[in-house]
User: What shape does this take?
Amino acid sequence: MTRLIEYVPVCGWSAFDRKDAFTKALHAKLPESDWHYQWQYRNFVEVTELWESLRDASSMVTHLNINQFVDERFVYLATQGAAATSILDSLAAEFGLVRSVRIEPDAAAGDA
Assistant: This one.
């Protein structure tokens, strides 16, 4: 079983107007200087970022909605594992984020 913790602002992502402050606070907790020895950073496409802890293999993913007519907005924020969850939990109260836990069954060997 995979345990994902998803974070959503009380007002919802579409009304969340603290994206810049939140991004700055998140990046302060995941400084670029740590990306090679504590966190592995991946940016597969312009709108999705993934951090993976080299200490406990926990991970954090952010996904943005970028539209030329609308400000860029978070649409998804989740963690899996201790180190990543600890970072987002420390920001949740400050930015009005609510946690929800989602359990997903592991894929059966034949499903791969």
About this structure: The longest strand covers residues 70-80. The radius of gyration is 15 Å. Residues 13 and 73 are 7 Å apart (CA to CA). The helical segments are 19-29, 82-95.
